[in-house]
Specification:
Blueprint: H1 2-29, E1 57-61, H2 93-106, E2 107-109, H3 120-128, E3 134-138, H4 141-144, H5 155-172, E4 177-180, H6 186-193, H7 197-203, H8 209-212, H9 220-245, E5 250-252, H10 256-259, H11 277-292
Parallel strand pairs: 1-2, 1-3, 3-4, 4-5
Length: about 300
């Protein structure tokens, strides 16, 4: 009886060992081993948060995205917009992503000359009706370009406007991607454009007076005024980075547009402040590089 019990005990131990070895063997083989039902375990990768090839693009923002002063004086020219234009000289973000025919049918420009950050939620509301897979944002220059330094949009209000625009987007399109361009260095644009007599005459019509007013003045007050505007732009760009970083489907250019050293060839030959056709092409390059960069 005792021997029979020991034999049964050894048999049970052997069976347990065999099962254990079999389980360990399946684990060692990896994901290609058959499952319990004889089917192959799934080896599919999770869908990445960021798609480098979105199938449609909407743009929101201000005069830069409308191609203002790129083709004619004091006139929008959306055909050369860095975001959605069809011009072969620019190869906009939409054209680079969708092809020329695709961009013509699946990209939309809701930017408006003169728009400030407070206008962005309403623009975003219009954009989401199209259901774009990517929304391109460039806004903030007009918040700094006011009639005086005191009239510039406070940083807290700027943040509130951008956050409201993002909430508007997310309510309708939780999976849409967002590309956010930084605000250009307005002081750099002043330093380049002030070499043009024509440009300075156009500036007197009311283009960015907080930075461009009294363009030739180099006294302490003028220098401080321009430095204050530049600092406000830097603060806006920090807001854009921070708010974008809180959204897993948002990418900012990390200050690349701000850092870009626009030369006279990249500035409008009428106002020497807004991007020329060549300047629009440079903005498109930066945007495309950011959108198509590999990542999670």
């Amino acid at each position: 009886m005792e021997q029979a019990t020991r034999r049964r005990g050894r048999a049970v131990l052997a069976a347990v060992a065999a099962v254990a070895f079999g389980v360990a063997g399946c684990d060692a083989v990896g994901g290609d081993a058959p499952g319990a039902a004889g089917t192959k375990a799934s080896s599919a990768r999770p869908t990445p948060l960021w798609d480098t090839r979105p199938d449609s693009v909407a743009a929101v923002g201000d005069s830069i995205t409308r191609g203002f002063d790129a083709c004619a004086v004091l006139t929008d020219c959306p055909e050369v917009s860095w975001a959605t234009g069809g011009s072969e000289e620019v190869d906009s973000l939409a054209v680079r992503l969708l092809g020329r025919a695709g961009a013509a049918g699946r990209s939309w420009n809701y930017a408006a000359t003169g728009a400030r950050m407070e206008d962005l939620p309403a623009q975003m509301e219009r954009a989401v009706r199209r259901g774009p897979e990517l929304v391109a944002v460039m806004a903030g220059a007009n918040d700094a370009c006011r009639e005086s330094v005191a009239a510039m949009t406070p940083v807290a209000e700027f943040r509130a406007g951008f956050e409201a625009a993002m909430r508007t987007l997310r309510r309708s399109l939780p999976k849409a991607q967002v590309y956010v361009a930084s605000v250009p260095d307005l002081k750099r644009l002043w330093s380049q454009g002030r070499t043009s007599a024509l440009g300075k005459q156009v500036w007197k019509l009311g283009i960015c007076p907080s930075m461009l007013g009294d363009a030739d003045a180099l006294d302490a007050a003028a220098t401080e005024r321009r430095a204050t505007v530049q600092k406000r732009v830097e603060d806006y760009n920090e807001v854009l980075r921070e708010v974008c970083a809180q959204d897993s489907r948002c990418r900012s250019d990390d200050g690349e547009v701000y850092a870009y050293r626009f030369g006279t060839a990249q500035l409008s030959r009428w106002d020497w402040f807004h991007p020329s056709v060549d300047g629009q092409a440079k903005l498109a390059e930066i945007a495309y590089r950011t959108v198509t960069a590999p990542g999670p």
